[in-house]
Amino acid sequence: MLRGISSDRPSIALLVDPGVRDLEGVVRAVGAGCEEEGVPLSWDLRSGRAAELAGLASEASRLGVGVGFDGAGWAIALSSMKGRPPYMAGTVGGCADLRWVGQNAARLAKGVPLVLRAPTGSGGGGGRAEGILELDPSLVRTIVAEVLKAMGLR
Q: How distant is the alpha carbon of residue 100 from its chain centre?
């Protein structure tokens, strides 16, 4: 178990690489997104890349949803998809992006539709659609196939 993440408390788990410059800002922004959806956030420091950290965080989370952040990017992983690429991953343009990440992590935990808009980023411009939401097409096919199978349609 990670020191800052309790397996007794249902929460999204966030692991942040200690080399991140604005640690407090990262935790605050991701936490704000989770809080908007009514899901608590627990966090801890751990060295690693975003995808690896997200996987570890998802295993530590009682809700099975983990977020990883390494300064260059973020990832959201589900414990039910252990050994596969993160469910979502991208780059960060600012605080609004991280809030959006927290919001979608919480929505995954609640089982409600994701907010699939690109966040506006920190520059106040029109946002960056590319690099913000990077879904692996083979992962999407796998998920759709599993859903259809569970519904008895395949």
A: 9
